[in-house]
C-alpha cells in the first residue's frame, strides 16, 4: 500500500504560539478560546429532548410512592457509564435500585431477562433500543412503566408504536445534536430533574458522561459544542473512584479514556464479564474498586492470551492469501475479539481484512480497511449482508452462508481494480529543534478534548540520527534522537532490527504522530506517540 502525507502547514522554524495559530487557521477554528473552553451555554435546552417531562414525572412519582426501580444497562462503555449515572442518581434519592446487564455484546432487553422484571414497577433502559416492539408490549402488559434513554437510530415507521408502550427520550427524536451519546442523554435527563427539584446531583456524574462520549466516539467538532462541553466539564470533574484508579498516575483526558479506561471496560465485554465493570463503577469502597479493577485487568490479559493463541492459525491463513488485496480470516472463538484481531492484522499486513466467526445462519465479525475510503458503504451496497459502524472500521452483523461466496467475489473484484493508498493527514511539519516544553503544553491544552471530528494535533518530523531501544520487554519501539526526546510506537516489536539498521546507516526516517510528554522511569521526556514510521521520504 502506498502511503503519503498531506501536510497542511510547514511550521519549521516558527515559535510555539505561531505554530498553534497557523494550525488553528488551517482547521478553520475561528474562536480558539471558545473551542478549547466550551461553556454551559453550549448545552441545548434540556426540554428539547422529546418526552423528557413525562419521563421525569414517572421517575419522581415513583420515588415519592416508593416504587421498585430497575436500571437495564447496555454492554459497551457508553452503556455502562449511562447505567452507572442512573443507579447512582437514584441512590442520591434514597432508592436502592435493581440493575441488569447482559453478557457479552447482547444489546437491549432480552426475552430471558423478562422474569427478572416481575417484581419491578419502573424500568429504566439506557443506551439501547430494541427493534422488536413486542418485547416492550410484554413489559407493558406486566404493569411495568418503562423509560428508555437512548441515542441510536430509530425506525421512523415504528416511532408511534414505541410511544404506545414506553417513554422514549432520545437524541435521535428531532433533536439538533443527534450525536449526543447515551451517557449524554442520561446526564441531561438528570440535569432536568435537578432543575425541577432544586438538587445538584447530576454534576457528580459528568465524568461518566464524558467517558461515555469518548468511548462511543461521538463527534467533538465545532458543530457539536454540546458534546465538547460535556467532555470538557467531565474532564475537569473526575469523581468516580474506579475511573481514578483505571487511569492511575495519568491525567484525566480524552486520551486516558481511550487508552486506559475504555480498553478495560471493553475487555470485560469481550470476555462476557460485563458485571465487573458495573460493580467497579458503582462502588465507593477502595478495596472493592481495586478488586474489580484487578478482575478487569485479568479480562484484558485473558483477551490478549486468546489473541496470541489465534494468531498462528491466522498467519497460516494469511500466507495462503499473499496474492490477494484483502484478507479473509475465519476464526473459532467464543470471545468478542474480532475487532481487536482485525486491528492487529491490518497493522501487520496493511491490507483490508475481514475477521469472521461462524454463527447459526452465517458469518459475523469485524472489518478494518485502510486506504479504500468508505468501505462500509461498499459492503452494505452489495446487499449480501448486514454491516454497521464507521467507514473503515465496522462490524459484520451477518453474512448468510448462501451469500458468502458471492460477497467475497464482489469484494475481490472491487479491490483488484483499485490502487489502495493511505493518505496521512498531518497538521504541521516540524524540525527537531522546534520542539520544546512550551509547544508541548500548548498542544496538550488543545488535545485535552479530542476524538472523532477533532483529532489530536498531528505532526511530521524527519530524523537521521537516533538510537533504537524498546520498552515492556521489547513490546514497544523507542527511537531517541536526543537526550530529552523520544519517538514511541506502541506494539511494534517486529520493527526493532529494521530500525537498528536504519540507525547504523544514518537513513532519514519520517515520524508522524502526536506530541506529549511523560516520565519513563524517573526521567521526563518530550515525546511523539507515532501513528506511522516511514523509511522513505514522503
Q: Would you write up a description of this structure?
A:
The radius of gyration is 24 Å and the shape is globular. It is built from 18 helices and 19 strands. The chain has about 550 residues and is of the alpha/beta class. The strands form four sheets. Strands 13-14-18-19-17-16-15 form a seven-stranded mixed sheet. The chain has a five-stranded parallel sheet with strand order 3-2-4-5-6, with helices on both faces. It has three domains: about 1-25 and about 425-535, Beta Barrel (OB fold (Dihydrolipoamide Acetyltransferase, E2P)), CATH 2.40.50.140; about 45-205, Alpha-Beta Complex (inorganic pyrophosphatase (n-terminal core)); about 305-420, Diaminopimelate Epimerase, Chain A, domain 1 (Roll), CATH 3.10.310. It starts with a strand and ends with a strand.
Structure described in brief:
The chain has 538 residues and is α/β, with parallel strands linked by helices.
Helix content: 40-55%
**N-C termini distance:** 14 Å
The chain-level structural class is alpha/beta
The rough form would be described as globular
Side-by-side strand order of the widest sheet: 13-14-18-19-17-16-15
Strand content of the residues, in percent?
A: 15-25%
Radius of gyration: 24 Å
Chain-averaged pLDDT: 93
Taken together, the total number of domains comes to: 3
CATH C-level class of the largest domain is: Alpha Beta
Which architecture of the largest domain does the CATH hierarchy give at level 2?
A: Alpha-Beta Complex
- The CATH topology of the largest domain turns out to be inorganic pyrophosphatase (n-terminal core)
Number of helices: 18
Question: Uncertain spans, ≥5 residues at pLDDT below 50?
Answer: none
